[in-house]
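Proteins fold reproducibly. Take a sample protein:
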Amino acid sequence: MFPTSPAIAVALGKPRRTAFRVAAALLTLGIFLIDVLSTLEGAVAVLYVVSVLLVARTGRRGDIMTTALAGIVLTVLAYVDSHGLNHVGAQTFRAVVSLAAIGITAILALQHQNAMQRLGAQARLLDLSHDMIFVRDRFGVITFWNRTAEQVYGWSSEQAVGCVADTLLSTRYPQARESVESTLLSLGSWEGTLEQRTREGEWRVLDSRWVVQRDSRGRITGVLETHTDVTERRRAQDAAMRAQSELAHAMRVATLGELTATLAHEVNQPLMAVVTNGEAGLRWLHRAQPDLQEVDAAITRSVAEARRASEIVKRVRAFLAKSTTVREALAVPALIHESVRLVQHDLNRDAVQLRVEVGSGLPSVHGDAIQLQQVLVNLMINASQAMAGQPHARELHVDAQRGEQGAVVISIRDNGPGIDAAHLETLFKPFFTTKPHGMGMGLAICRSTAEAHGGQLSVHSAPGQGATFRLVLGLAGDAA
């Protein structure tokens, strides 16, 4: 086995290097004296290879070359002194073997030193990385552990090398471990997000990249793993999602005032119908000859209207509820119809003429009904408010048609004053509003909700020609 790498040899310090040089020099001298003075017939000079290997531990090319050259010269001198220049025989063969052994050992030592220097340089580069990097063999045993890994995980290189990576770090994978390994072996690399635990017991979220290392014959020798700590970024993303959820909830609550009148209007209608049908049923029942068929019909209508009132209340409560999002296949006509029911009272109050055109055979879309209703309600209320104060008839068009690649396009168009061209770029940004008392979150939440459903929300407007908001939604099963 060859000696220690140059990086380790440098760490030994000058005194150790001097000691190796002195030991090699004394050994070389001793071998020469034995070769010259003794009567041994063996290839004593071949022992010079030990001096070459010994001095190689200094990590200096010059020391290796000097010792090898000294061994070659002394071998020749000892041969000439013992046998002369004209002798050819077994001693000559042994001398040639010794010279070849010294030369080959020196060449291999130099090659080993060059390889170790390259590995040392690569290791120093890996130590400079801000990522955690370690190398493991095909059985998961760690063979290299960089400085950042020491700092983040808490185990030193001496403690980590020789341990099984998954056991040491309690690694959690996004999928089955066998599936990850299969992808790694088939593609030669793998990327994903996983969780690992530090020595202090803290879990870290990591973007991980694995690359297979192979030898000249293509056999797997190890796996290089690079891990980027994204724990704080993940926490920030989670906080942002929670903040968005809170803002969306606040927006729904803010809409409560506008929905109160709608709720009162819609619930009042079925309740009045219940009263009317109840009174009619009583009249039919109190006749001299009760008409039980009419009584039955009146009671049936009362029950239907009561259920309608209950559904209205449930729908509004769900709209305002802060609950877990449930995605399901939604029929577009029903989605538009329920949204229109929520704003119909406001539109009637503002004398807005509503026209709804839904194309036939539209496919279902995948999403949360309450969130998508919120988008449509916000857009229709905004359109109604934009047309306020106009002397001419106020018209609101809601149109749903099949778009490209089977998507569904819902357009909401008004005939109001339109949107200033200077505001089109910032219209969907949070906290931007043109209303005196607006929050500036409605359209921002509408766009983020559309994008969360795998869709898009855009606007087209020309001054004096109204505005058209275009909501594009994918098919059921397309959105995650």
